[in-house]
Write a structure and sequence with these properties.
- This protein is mainly α.
- The protein is 69% helix and 0% strand.
Length: 109
């Protein structure tokens, strides 16, 4: 027995979203809802639609040591690059401030 579920889509933006979802999922438009329901917990879908936090239990993802170290290295490298940029910007801002004070002091004399 074949069941057909349908819902009218009135907005063009929603129709485009459905088409993009179908392409992204690699299924016909008529199978998008089924694909979503099979892959995402319904409490998470409800939370997404209503803007609330998910009511499903949190699950922990186990990572191997190499992956954990790679993630830590990327975070550490990102912070070190950010630190250099912040220091550089602070020095440049300090220089500009001193030059501005000197020029205003010289022009005020």
């Amino acid at each position: 027995m074949r069941k057909i579920y349908s819902q009218s889509i009135t907005k063009c933006q929603s129709q485009l979203a459905l088409s993009n979802l179908a392409k992204g999922l690699g299924v016909p438009e008529s199978r998008v809802l089924e694909s979503i329901l099979e892959s995402i917990d319904t409490s998470d879908l409800t939370a997404l639609a209503t803007g609330r936090r998910s009511t499903s239990e949190k699950s922990n993802t186990q990572l191997d040591i190499q992956t954990i170290e790679a993630i830590r290295d990327e975070i550490s490298q990102g912070f070190s690059l950010l630190s250099e940029r912040v220091l550089s910007a602070a020095h440049a801002g300090g220089r500009e401030g001193v030059l501005d004070l000197c020029s205003s002091a010289l022009s005020g004399e």
